[in-house]
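Form P-L/3: holo structure prediction, ligand nicotinamide-adenine-dinucleotide.
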Amino acid sequence: MAFRKLVSQLPNFVANGSIPRGTRVRSFASEGAASPVYVVFGAGGAVGSDLVGRLAKQQGAKIVASDVDQGDLESLGSSAEIMPANTEDEAAVKSILDKAAEKFGKVDGVACCVGSSLIKPAHLTHAQEFHDAIAKNTYSAFNILKASVGPMMKSGGGSIVFNGSAIAHKGYANHDVMAAAKGAIAGMTLSAASTYSPHNIRVNMVVPGLTEAKMTKRLAESEEARDASERMIALGRLGGAHDVARALEFLLHPDSSYITGTFLHVDGGLGNIAPAEAGDSKQA
Ligand SMILES: NC(=O)c1ccc[n+]([C@@H]2O[C@H](COP(=O)([O-])OP(=O)(O)OC[C@H]3O[C@@H](n4cnc5c(N)ncnc54)[C@H](O)[C@@H]3O)[C@@H](O)[C@H]2O)c1
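OUTPUT (holo model):
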């Protein structure tokens, strides 16, 4: 319904309490305000495991934690139901969502914290490396979207949050493959946010920059590489997994029920702004 038409009918709603046909009503309660059920993929990683810890502190929260690497999930202890899966496998992802919905009666929030890294120019990249990056990042995100919306449509809504990357929002040399993989997820996020809005399903993306994690371990260990990276970041430091997990939790939470189709950058400025030169602020 057009906004102007809706506004023109507002006095009628107030007068007789009726809602015209076709008006979509959103209720806070329908998004799992009480005892929320969350599924976290990539839960053995730096960001995913921090997110599980945060969600576990929410009142009555039930969490399913999944990763391809079962060993990484063991550190989560009893804070979550552990269900290992390879997110490149469509049937495996669907099975996790179905089991979560069957066990807890619904699924309110799903986070995709699965990812990989590849720093190479296109002309040196093998077809298999490109295929692997797309499978691990983009196909995983698609499988998660596809499997999540079924249970959410049944229970009246939910929130899906993907992890993108700053390198898909600003051009950085030698990130051709990862920019393609994460850029595709950004486009999918916008389309899916529209597709599933009539079902009260919100779809958003957190956009990390350089973050301390398994995939950046080598970079963080080399003082030279770390210094060079920090000089590219306006806030002058790598992000922590907790910085990214906090943003994911925010977007998953039912209190964010009016936010959909959004990219929340958690990158110290890497994707959008140039670092100031020393002395710039003196002139301001
Ligand atoms: N760390 C960074 O600098 C950085 C930068 C930009 C974007 N990101 C994104 O942030 C998200 C979180 O990554 P992180 O920083 O915690 O890295 P991480 O390497 O610590 O975690 C990634 C996790 O994904 C899991 N995984 C990989 N392939 C999988 C598969 N096929 N099926 C299931 N699980 C699989 C890994 O086992 C690992 O636990 C990812 O989407 C990543 O692409 C991270």
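COMMENT: The chain has one domain: 33-267.
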